[in-house]
Structures are given as C-alpha cells and as structure tokens.
Amino acid sequence: MSSSTPGKSSKADRTGASGATGRTGKTVPEHTTATEAGAKAGGKSATEAAAKTPTKSATKSATKSATKAAAKTPTESATKAAAKPAAKSAPARKATAAAAKAPAPRKAPKAESHLAMVRRARRINRELAEVYPYAHPELDFRNPFELLVATVLSAQTTDLRVNQTTPALFAAYPTPEDMAAAVPEEMEEIIRPTGFFRAKTKSLLGLSAALRDEFGGEVPGRLEDLVKLPGVGRKTANVVLGNAFGVPGITVDTHFGRLVRRWKWTDEEDPVKVESVVAGIFPKSEWTMLSHRVVFHGRRICHARKPACGACPIAPLCPSYGEGETDPDKARKLLKYEMGGRPGQRLSPPADYPGKPAPALGEG
Predict the structure, then answer these.
(1) What is the pLDDT of residue 93?
(2) Which amino acids are annotated catalytic?
C-alpha cells in the first residue's frame, strides 16, 4: 500500500523524466532538469554554474578586448606609429654608426693669393731642378740649323721619331743651301716617318730658301726674324734661341701647357698667353731650363691621361694631386724613360744623362 497521500503527486513524480512539468506548467527539457539536479547535488544553482562556463568567460574577454580596440581608432594608432621613429635595420644602424665616425668633409681651401702662387711655382721649379739636374732639349742637333729643322719636324710626332729620322735627312742635306735645292719627292720619302711629310717638306724647303736668300745661309738669333721663316712659330723660335743661342725663352708645348694649368699657375689655353703669364712668374734667367724641367716632368711622371701622382716628388705642392694613380707601387709602374728604367728619346744624349740612348730607326 502506497504511503503517498491521495490527490498529491509525489516528489518523484514531479521530478520525473521526459514529460515532467515545472511550476509554470510548461514542459521542462530533459537537460535542464538534469542541470538543476546536478547543481543541487553540488550545492550550487544552475545560474551560478552557467555564469562560470568557459563560453561566457571567453565572450566577456572578447568583449573587453573589442572595447579597448575600438577605443583606439585606426587613425589614432597610425598617428602614434608615425610619431615613433621607425626601427632601423642592422645595415642601416651600421651605416649610421659609420657616418658618425667618418671625418667631417674638409672645408674648401681658401683662394690662393697671387704672391702665394708665385712662391709655390718657384718652389716647384727648385724641386724639379733637383729631380732633373740633367734636363735638356730632347732633339739631337749639332748646330742651330739642325735644331731648327728638327723642331719643325717635331710637330705632331715624338722627339724620338724625329731623332731617328734626321740622321738620313742631314746626311743628304747638311746646309740650308743643300736643303733649298732638294727634290721635294725625295725629301718627302726621307721624312715620311714623322707624319704630315708633304706639309713639312714644303716648310723645310721654304725656310731653307729664306735662310739662303735673306740671312746668308745662317740661322738668325732674334725672335722677330725666326718667326718670319715658313713653318716657324714662337715655340720653335724659343727652342732655337734658348738652346742654340743661349737667349732665354719659354717653350710652351702640349706638356708645358698641361702642367702649368694643373699647377694653377694659369688657366689660359692660348700658348702665347701662357708664355706671357709664366714669364711674369720667373726671372728671365730661368726661362729656358724651366721649360726643360716642366717638359721632362710631363713626359716622365705627370702624363696627360694617367699621372703617376703616387710617385711624384712635388705632390705636396700640386693642387691637382689625385687626378692620377695615388698608390705608390702602381704609380711607379707608370714612370717613363729613365725614371722607368727605359731609354730616352735622344740617340746622342748629353754625357750627364742617366738613361740609355734611344735606338736608331729600325732597331727597336
């Protein structure tokens, strides 16, 4: 016999499985009833258990993060990022450090006064005199006439080529009278190795005839007379005057002009103007030897295309130092003639010349 009271459902009936109803009269899902039972068994309510579920915690965390992210708008983030300097990469940091350690660029040198330039130019001349005490004209000659002819032939060619050619020429025409009577075609064939042989033949025939007819077969010793001869300009006249007559003169050839511009003695290009400027820097007694020393230096060390700056004895005085090779070992390989251990240009050099004589035509 049941002990339950008629008309009242038992506790077990109210908490039964599927189809059980709650106090509201609605059907309570099975899982809810189980949750409630589990909550009661653990001493906690279903609401408290649900509040501490992982899903709710994650949602709360996500909501908080989203709120903070929203507080920082993209514009604000970008502004702060822009305000901070960008992090430098390792190479950039090294470059910055190297730049910090690098010496500050040198200030541009002050403009050199004319007096300072003159003093520097004269010191260069003294230094070159010690380097080339044997400086001399590099054309073979035995008298003023031979020097005059050789200088005319030296245009647009080397002194070596002229020296290799003139022995046969002077053997055939030893005097102005002989040369004035020469057959043009025969002379052209002799001087062909010097280049421009037709124009040079015309000049030699003309100056020989002028020497014969106007100066008694002798080379005049005055500049104004020499420059009247066919094919003779100031450069040729100064070479003859300085080396055959002992009259001081400045010879402005391509080497001389190039070097005096590198040394900032002048920026003139015209040979006559260059001669005038340099003549004002040095006493007249120095003109001829100055010409030889500068030309010697230009042919041996201060070359046109690649100067041997690293082997130059006057480098500390040169404002153009660095235009050529500065490494001493590499620069020494650029030296020419006796400075580089090779023959000079003359077949018959002066007795004090330290180099070897040049070979005759066809010998080397």
Answers:
(1) 55
(2) 235, 253
